Amino acid sequence: MIDRVEEKVKITPKNIGTLVLKGGSFFGLISLVVAFSILSPFFLTLNNWLNILRQVAVLLIVACAQTMVIVSAGIDLSVGSTLALGGCLAAVAMSYWGWPFLLGALLGVTVSALVGFANGVIIAKGRIPDFISTLGMLGAVRGIALLITGGLPVPSHFTATTLRGYLPRVLIWLGSGDIGGVPVPAVIAGVMVIITWFILSRTAFGRSIYAVGGNREAARESGINVDGVKILVYTLSGLYAGIAGLVLVGRMNSANALMAEGLELQTIAAVVIGGTNLFGGEGGILGTLIGGLLIGVLGNGLNLLDVEPFWQRVVNGFIIIAVVVFDQWRRRKIST
Amino acid sequence: MVTRNPVLVLKDICKEFPGVKALNNVSLELYPGEVHALLGENGAGKSTLMKIISGIIEPDSGEMYLDGRKVQFKSPKEAMEAGVALVHQELSLVPSLSVGENIFLGRWPQGRWGVNWSYVYREARELMRKFDIDVDPRVPVRNLGVAEQQIVEILKAVSQPHVKILLLDEPTSALTEHEVERLFKLLSDIKAEGKAIVFISHKIDEALKISDRVTIIKDGEKVITEEKGNLTEKDVIYYMTGKMFESNVSSHNADPGRKAVLSVRGLSAGILKGVDLDVYAGEILVIFGILGSGRSTLARVLFGLQEYRGEVFVEGERVEIRSPLDAIRCGIGYLPEDRRKALVFQLSVGANITLASLREISRKGLLMFDKEKELAERFIDELRIRTSNSRKRVTHLSGGNQQKVLFARWLAKSPKILILDEPTRGIDVGAKFEIREIVKNITKEGKAVLYITSEALEALEVGDRIAIMRGGKITKILPNDRQLSKSDLLAEVGGVVKV
């Protein structure tokens, strides 16, 4: 691949230091795994790992889209709300309106993609900063989800609407089933990771994302439709959030308007831990995969060690800062 | 004047940069109450001299005396405290702050309740009144025009306590004729207060008008310091270039026999006022003009980066260019003045080369890496871009090689017309030569090149024809034959030849 910068290091004892520096967050993940394996006897079991994969799937799916957004020098703060709206709409359609699974799922995903499209149009055509547009959307879309559900879980016996049925089995399978022992959410996340990798590194559109994020003016002067790229990236972000919404509703066997709160920050953390430049133009999906896993492993490990949830938040926050500080330091180290 | 003591004396100042002797034993005396014009070609050493006086760089050898005392400035701050104020070419005001706040920036007077704003505005108003300037000190600087901002910048410099010397680097480049008059009146008032002013300009007529004495620098050496009255504009050009100029070079207009690839009629935008131009296949048409002449605006307009009025024809057909995409579809390519604006530094050399050809190297949206590699490597070879391979980051290349990457981008796209805005600026001599060769080869394939430069020598070396640009207009188009010399060109853009 021509867009990847050649950075190969031969593994020799002498080079191990450089290798650790270049690997960055990968070695962070490995050290966490080693630490938890020593501290907890349950950590290194197959069951626990399947659990981690199931827990981290939703985060990973949305983080894939966030990677594309951040590489294009944008940021999407509305992904959590969009996920909730898509999931709630699908659940409402299936359980209250009696829609079949496919139709309900299509509705949820389409509306989510439309939210992303709206973000893209506002940002590209309205010349509004990415941060502001998606911050506004974060509030507004969550509000719409609350209006649709009346603030109650879906399905619920307390709604004025007559309940036509429970959530379809296919939907629950999406969130809780498994294929040959591998959790379905993990499979879906894997597929999304591969698709995103393909888009970013193999397509002309992906190359345009890097160009727009790296130097918007240069991209425009090379004849790239900058507005079009932005709009498409945000639309994909909404679409991914919609898919993640279905998975999350299936896992919880219920939808509610307040689900996935704070997901935007977790996805941004995963992307940044993965070494993608927050100012755009460089990064990739492999880093995000590691970043997402790191966040998942950390949460799981702290749970196993019986760390209080309040403390978990504190530890989580500081670990993210530490990883990024280390990452910045190693970049400077490499460039000199 | 001779009886007075000089405020600043420079003695045998030398400064060497890698490969260039920028200043060689330059001595200069500056008297209070004079405007001293510093003239010379691009690269003659004027700016280096200014930087030394204002403490931005230190000389290798030589001495500087301020009011008879030996000084050695280690920083602009030291120079400022000693009484030397530099007014930059780029404005350095804070747009969101008011005129008064800007004038006193960094030295706001403290009162009992924080900054004493009434004092700031009283003083600012007093300053305006003294120099007869009609600007409200409470207005944010961003609401002012360029000329007014320039005046505020000068007032800011003058209002510093104990300023003795004011250095102005091309202060008139962005101003209209009327605004220049106003600036000159302000300078006379400042001069009347006994301050010394050094004035750098490429506009020879203006420099002679405002100054009392003139110093001419050529290739890092002082040629002469003379009272204005003893110099004609012709003399100035002679001292700048070592050659007399012929004032009777005749304009060479459209060639009816040939077909123009690009034609422009009545093009107006920003400072451009009705530009007519024809560029023929296989020629390099140089646009020669100084900063603020409209040369870069012309390039930006033709590439769809700025709106315009007027007509543009490509190969005889009327086209509308509203965006870079429109321009590219018409077969126009463009290298901006600042290559950093055109490169994506996070991407590889190869990806930068193919950036304008993504459609050509992909099928149904999928990149064909072998085709991309082939295209990139072809031009890496052809233009001799020095890189270990096409996957290297473009950041790691030298300035000259980065510029070649941009040439490769457009050659890969194969446009009919290539617009180059100062393509050799800021790159080393060897690469400069190579780039000129590349440009000459482009025209052999029948492409037309619009080559913008402010270097007279470069214009003469590459141009088939040279269009002189001044005040937003093409004032003359000269055939580049053997009779044309550097001094002719400098006379044309310097305002010495009246239109």
Short synopsis of the structure:
The complex is a heterodimer of chains A (336) and B (499). By secondary structure, chain A is mainly alpha-helical. Chain A contains 14 helices and 2 strands.
Oligomer state equals heterodimer
CATH architecture of the largest domain in chain B: 3-Layer(aba) Sandwich
Number of strands of chain A: 2
Q: What number is the mean pLDDT of chain B?
A: 89
Question: What class would the helix/strand composition of chain B place it in?
Answer: alpha/beta
Could you give a short account of the major beta sheet of chain B?
6 strands, mixed
Radius of gyration of chain B, in angstroms, nearest whole number: 25 Å
CATH topology term of chain A:
ABC transporter involved in vitamin B12 uptake, BtuC
Largest sheet of chain A: 2 strands, antiparallel
For the largest beta sheet of chain B, what order do the strands appear in spatially?
A: 6-9-10-3-11-12
What gap, in angstroms, lies between the N and C termini of chain B?
A: 36 Å
Largest interface: A-B, 30 and 38 residues
CATH superfamily annotation of the largest domain in chain B:
P-loop containing nucleotide triphosphate hydrolases
What is the alpha-carbon Rg of chain A in Å?
20 Å
Text of the CATH class of the largest domain in chain B: Alpha Beta
Describe this structure in words.
Chain A is mostly helical and 336 residues long. Chain A has helices spanning 16-23, 25-39, 46-71, 79-95, 101-125, 130-149, 169-176, 184-202, 204-214, 216-221, 226-252, 263-273, 285-304, 309-335; strands spanning 178-179, 182-183. Chain A is built from 14 helices and 2 strands. A two-stranded antiparallel ribbon of chain A has the order 1-2. In chain A, helix 2 (25-39) runs parallel beside helix 13 and helix 3 (46-71) crosses helix 12 (263-273). The radius of gyration of chain A is 20 Å and the shape is globular. Chain B folds into 2 domains: 8-241, P-loop containing nucleotide triphosphate hydrolases (Rossmann fold), CATH 3.40.50; 260-493, 3-Layer(aba) Sandwich (Rossmann fold). In chain B, 32% of the residues lie in helices and 26% in strands. In chain B, strand 23 and strand 24 form a beta hairpin. Chain B is globular and about 70 Å long. Classes of the chains: A mainly alpha (336), B alpha/beta (499). The interface between A and B is medium-sized, with 30 and 38 residues.
